[in-house]
C-alpha cells in the first residue's frame, strides 16, 4: 500500500519542532506501525538524514515503551492496542498519517517522538508498593484472596505504564494510571495496612505533576490494556475516605 | 584437513580445571551450611559499602531492592526510561516453585531433578538444588508484595503444568506473569529509591567495566539523552543485563536486549561460559516477511490445552478444518506418549523443524505447524479456554488476523532464551573478584536447555535470595576501604576507550545502516548455528563473521552526534559486540562435539534423531577467556559432577 507520513521532528528538548512529510509508496499491509517507522528510518539513513527517534522495545504490547499519537489518537485507531501491535491493515491505502509524540506538560519531549515519562515513576515511588522486605513473607497460601478479588486486582495491575491515558486526556491528568495501581494494591488483603497512606500519597504526588480529572473518559478509550475508568471511582472513594479515616482504629473494622 | 585438526588452531585449552567453589557436604544442606559459614557485614557497616547494579529486570530490580533494604548503598543503572520496561516484563506463562500445593508428588528434590535432567546434564548440581530450595520463598515473597497470582475459588493459589514436568508447579498471573513479577520487584525497588537507599539512573547504558588491581570497582556509562560519559565507582559490580538472543537479529527478545555489558566484561577478563547453549522456543508466530523486526512468542502454557499437529500428507494445501482427524499427525503425542505436547522446548522445537523440513508445514509459506485448541474448547467450553488464554489469543489475532478459537494457531520455533552467559562460581561471582552476575546474564542453572517457567524463578532467586547473602561474604574483608576514586587513571582510561569508540562510529561515514549489519549477522548465525549445527555450517559461519565485522568497522553509517539522543549510535556499539560474540558462539558450538539440550550437532544424534551426549568428553562447562578480537581464545573447563542425579539418556517417551 501507499502511505504518506507527517512526522513530528524535534532535535532536542529545547529545540523548536515541526512536522516533516515523507512518502512511503510501497509498504505491506502486514507490517506493524513500528516496522513502518523502521522502514522510514532506513530510507532516511540512506538519504543521509537523521532517523526518527522513538521509544520502543518489546513489540508485544507489554513493556509500555512505545508511545505515538497517530492521527490525534494515542496509539492510533485500534481499541486496546499499543502502537507496536497496530498493523497497517487498519489504515486506508493512500491516506496521510500524522505521527506525534505524547503531548503533555509532564512528558517533555526528548527528541522527535521520544518523551520523558519519569513523572509516572514518581507516583509509584510515593506509594505504589506493599512494604514487604525480602525474606519477611509468610507462606503464600496463608493469605487467602477470593478469586473475584484477585481477578479485579489483576485487571487493574495489567497497566503497562505507557502514559496513553495522560496523552489522551484534555487535562493531561494521570488519574487512570494512578487509579490502576491504587486499585491493584488496595483491593488485595495484603494492601490493606498501607491503603489510606498509599492513596493519599500517590494522589498528592500525581497532582504535583499532572492536570486534574474532569471525567472526560478519553483515558479509558486510549488505554491499550482497556483498563476500566471504574477504578478512578474507586480511587476517588478511597482518597475521600483517607481524609477522615482514623488509621489507629483500622483493625476494629467489622 | 580433518575438522579436528582445523579446530585445534582456533583455541587453546587451559591446563587446570576451573573450580566452581561449591561448598562441601550433602546436596540438601550445602546452601544452609554455606549461609552459616559465610562472613557477615553488620547492619551498621552495610551503609559503608557501595554496590553498582546494572540492569533492572527481575534479577537486577530484586537484587537492588533487597540490597537497599539490607542497608547497602546501591546505584542502579538502566538503559530504559523506567526500570519497569526491562524485558522480564514480556514473560508470559509462569514461575515454577516446589510448593506441592497440588498434592501431586512435587518436592524440592523433584524440581531439582527435573531441572538437571531438563538441562540435559550440563548444569552445576549444587546451584540447581539451591534454586529449587529458594523457589518456595519466591512465591511467598511475591504474594506478600501483592502479585495478583491466579487463585482458586477458595482463595488459594492455582497452578498449571509446563514442559518437562509431570507435576503442576507453575504459578501464574494470566498470561502476564513476567509483567506482574517485574512490577512487584519494581515496586519494591521504587520504595527503596524513595527511601534513598537506591540511586536510580535511567537511560544510562554501561559501556565499560572498570578493574583496579584485578577487582571489579566500577563501570563507565553513557547518558543516552545528553551523551555524557560518566564513571560510577563501587565496592562491587552486579551485572543483571539479560541474554544474548538478539545476536540472531530475529528473536523473541525485545529490540534493545543486547550482550554488551557481559561482552565488555568478558573483554576485561570475565570468562564467558557455554555461549552455544541457546534456546529455540517451539511456539512462536512464524515469520511472515523480510521487514519483520522481531518474532512473537506464544506462551508454553498453551501446550497445556493445545495439541500440535500437521497433515499427514506432504504439501497438503487444504485449510485445517478440511483435514479429517484420520489424516492428521499429532506428532508430539505420537513420538512422546508420556509427556505428549508438554515435552521440553528443545525436543519440541526439533520435532517441529523436522515436520516442516519434510514438507508438512502449514500456512501461506509452509513454515509452521498447527497448535489446535478445538478439543479443549469442546471439553472445557469456550469460556474456560478464553479465561486461561484470552490475552494470548488476542495478541495472536492482532498479529495474524485469525482467531484461535475458530482456526488453529500456526506456530514455529524462534530464538528465545540463552542458557550460556558469564561464568560464575557458587556465590554468583565471576572469575573477576567483585563482579557478580545474575539471571539470564550468567550461565549457572539451566545447563543446555531451560525448562519453561524457570527463567523467572532463577532471576528472582538470584536477586532476592542468593546475592544478598553471598555479596556480604565478598565485602566483609573490604571493610574500611573506600571505593576507588573516579579520578583514578583506571576510570580515565575506560572513559577514553568509550569516547574513542563513539568517535570512530560517528566518523566512519560508510554506506550501510547498523541494522543492515545486524540483519546480515543474524542470517549467518541462524542459518549456521541455529536449531541444527554441523562442522560444515559452523566453519562457514566462522569464515563469514570476521569479514562482516571488518566491513562494519569500515562501512557503517551512523549519522548525528554524541551529544543528543542517538539511537543508531546506541545500536552501533551493541551490534559491534554481537559481531565479536557471534564468532565465540559458533566456535563454542564447533568445539562441543556432542548434542545436548538446545545444542544439536547433526553429527551426533541417536537413531531416532534425538540429541546424543558425550559425557565422557564433554561433561563440563566450557568457559572462554578473551585474548583479543579475532585471536584464539583460551578454553577453561569446569568439570560437572553428577552425584545426585543419575546421568542418563534423556527420555520423554
Characterization of this structure:
The complex is a heterodimer of chains A (254) and B (653). With 254 residues, chain A is α+β, with helices and mostly antiparallel strands. Chain A has eight helices and seven strands, in the order E-E-H-E-E-E-E-E-H-H-H-H-H-H-H. Chain A is elongated and about 70 Å long. Chain A starts with a strand and ends in a 10-residue tail after the last helix. In chain A, 52% of the residues are buried. Among the domains of chain B are: 281-413, Alpha-Beta Complex (Flavocytochrome C3, Chain A, domain 1), CATH 3.90.700; 488-637, Fumarate reductase/succinate dehydrogenase flavoprotein-like, C-terminal domain (Methane Monooxygenase Hydroxylase, Chain G, domain 1, Up-down Bundle). Chain B is 37% helix and 14% strand. Chain B has 18 helices and 20 strands. Chain B has helices spanning 3-8, 30-37, 43-46, 58-70, 108-118, 125-145, 177-195, 260-267, 331-335, 345-360, 374-380, 382-400, 455-475, 489-508, 514-529, 535-555, 567-591, 615-618, and strands at 12-13, 50-54, 73-77, 95-96, 170-171, 198-201, 204-212, 215-223, 229-233, 236-239, 272-273, 278-284, 307-311, 328-329, 369-372, 409-418, 421-422, 435-437, 620-625, 634-639. Chain B has a five-stranded mixed beta sheet. Classes of the chains: A alpha+beta (254), B alpha/beta (653).
Give a nutshell description of this structure.
Chain A has 254 residues and is an alpha+beta fold. In chain A, 34% of the residues lie in helices and 11% in strands. Chain B starts with a helix and ends in a 14-residue tail after the last strand.
CATH architecture of the largest domain in chain A: Orthogonal Bundle
The CATH topology of the largest domain in chain A is given as Fumarate Reductase Iron-sulfur Protein, Chain B, domain 2
Structure classification of chain B: alpha/beta
CATH superfamily descriptor of the domain at 488-637 in chain B: Fumarate reductase/succinate dehydrogenase flavoprotein-like, C-terminal domain
Using a beta-carbon cutoff below 8 angstroms, give the protein chain pair with the largest interface and the number of residues from each chain. Answer: A-B, 78 and 80 residues
Roughly how many Å apart are the termini of chain B? Answer: 40 Å
Measured on Cα atoms, how large is the radius of gyration of chain A? 21 Å
The portion of residues forming beta strands of chain B comes to 5-15%
Query: Roughly how many Å apart are the termini of chain A?
Result: 64 Å
Number of strands of chain B: 20
Mean pLDDT of chain A equals: 97
What is the CATH-assigned architecture of the domain at 488-637 in chain B?
Up-down Bundle
Largest sheet: spatial strand order of chain B: 1-20-19-11-17
- Biggest sheet descriptor of chain A: 5 strands, mixed
Helix proportion range of chain B: 25-40%
Shape of chain B: globular
Largest sheet of chain B: 5 strands, mixed
| Top-tier CATH class of the largest domain in chain A | Mainly Alpha
Structural class of chain A: alpha+beta
Helix content of chain A: 25-40%
